[in-house]
Amino acid sequence: MHSHTERDHFAPPRPPGRLRAIALAVLAHAVLIAALTWGVNWKTSSDDSANDGGESALQAQLWSALPQQAAPRTAPPPPPEVVQPTLPPPPPTEPVRAPPPPPPPPVLPTPAPAPVRQAVPDTREADIAIEREKKRLQKEQQEKERQRQQEREQREREKERKEEERRDRLEQEKKERLQKEKEKEKTQKADKAEREKERKEEERRERLEQEKKERLQKEKEKEKEREKADKAEREKERQEKLEKQKQQAEEKKRQAQEEQRKQEALEKASAKASEARRQEALRRMQGLAGATGDDDATGNAKHSSSPNAGAGGSGTGAGGKGQGSGSGGPSAGYGGKVAAKVKPNIVYPDALTGNPRAEVEVRTAPDGTIVGTRLVQSSGNKAWDEAVVRALQKTETLPRDVDGRVPNPLVIGFRPKD
Fold first, then answer.
1. Domains of the chain (ranges plus CATH)?
2. Locations of Gly residues compositional bias (predicted)?
3. CA 283 to chain centre
4. What is the DSSP string of 225-264?
């Protein structure tokens, strides 16, 4: 549509006053034809003249062509008007058709004048002029026809142009309408796709939330089962530990009882051996006394009972009678010497209440090196018992007694507050 507007805008302007000039030219030619027709006077001779001379007289009047009015000067074309792009150009004004020329008046027969004998004029020039006028009129008629044909073609072209513009406009409107429909459909599809996407996203979030809830529920159930299993396992371990502690306590009690029996048996055997040695010493003393005195003799003697005795023995005898006493073991201050060496190595436990006593049997080599330790009597606090045993093992050697020997075996008792 805009292309046609621009084409019309740049087209050459139509000559102004063309129709008016054509109308004036047609009118002038019509007047000329009427004057020529009216001025030609054909005379024929009467029957008498024809009989006399056999010749006819022809009269013609020649009229010069009327001066035609000059066409007005063509005015300069007006400046092109600015056509609004949204409004279609106004349809061109149909050219005003010139009115058809009036028919020539009928040629009335001229009354025959009185026959006058005249000389016969030469009509060749008149015929030539008439022929020329006919050709000119025919040429003008052809020119008019050609102009009318051009005008018809111009109108057809203008009509086709308008039709083309209309078709272009309709096509453009159709394209715009289709484009709008496509854009609308595209927008609707995009909106639908967006809504579908949001719906799927919402469903996905809900599904993930549900799966998360189910997973958390399963994890809670598994955690409960795990806690239950752990609790059962801990209870089982506690029972096993209690059973083990009970067995250990029974084993310790049995071992303590066994050790006590062994210690009692050892003490009995030691006492029995000491008694046997004492009796043997008494017998030797009695024998010596019997060999050196009579029945009335009396005497006193002082002698070491045995190498293992901690103190000497004394005896008196009169005749064959005698009385004696003896004791063996470490000296009175040996326990303090052992405690002074062992206690710096004791690591006191934190949770310790009361003043429990733990007794440990220590076996040593002749040089005092500790070769074995055994808990004889527990204090009731396992941490304190283990601390005492570790301290003895860390001490490694025991000090010698006043006689230069190390008692073996030796049972030592320890209290945390002694």
1. 335-414 (3.30.1150.10)
2. 310-336
3. 111
4. HHHHHHHHHHHHHHHHHHHHHHHHHHHHHHHHHHHHHHHH
Q: Check residue 56 and give its pLDDT.
A: 42
> Of the candidates 327, 379, 383, 307, which has an alpha carbon nearest to the alpha carbon of residue 350?
383
Q: pTM, whole model, 2 decimals?
A: 0.26
Burial of 247 (0-12, 13-18, 19+ CB in 10 A): exposed
Render 182-199 in DSSP notation, one character per residue.
HHHHHHHHHHHHHHHHHH
Bridge-partner residues for 361, per DSSP?
374, 411
Q: What are 295's two structure tokens?
A: 């029945």
| Amino acid in position 386 | E
Q: What angle do CA 58, 62, 67 make, to 5 degrees?
A: 165
Lowest mean pLDDT among 110-119, 335-344, 375-384: 110-119
Instruction: Count CB-CB contacts under 10 A for residue 344.
Output: 9
Cα 395 from Cα 341, distance rounded (Å): 7
Structural contact between residues 377 and 361, judged by C-beta atoms closer than 8 angstroms: no
CB-based contacts of 31, cutoff 8 Å, min separation 6:
66
Report the number of secondary-structure helices (H) and strands (E) in the chain: 6, 8
Q: What is the pLDDT of residues 286-323, one digit of tens each?
A: 655 443 333 333 333 333 333 333 333 333 333 333 33
In angstroms, what is the C-alpha Rg of the chain? 83
Token digits of residue 79 = 């400046």
Distance CA 314, CA 292 (A): 19
Predicted confidence band at 284 (pLDDT cuts at 50, 70, 90)? low
Alpha helices per DSSP H over 293-330: none
Residue with tokens 């955690």: 223
CB 362 within 8 A of CB 370: yes
Give the residue among 276, 384, 335, 301 at the shortest CA–CA distance from 268: 276
pLDDT for the residue 309: 32
Residue 257 CA to residue 378 CA, distance in Å, equals 12
pLDDT of residue 14: 60
Q: Is the pLDDT confidence value at 55 over 60?
A: no
Query: Length of the chain in residues, anyone?
Result: 418
**30 three-class SS:** helix
Please, are residues 315 and 322 in contact by the beta-carbon 8 Å criterion? yes
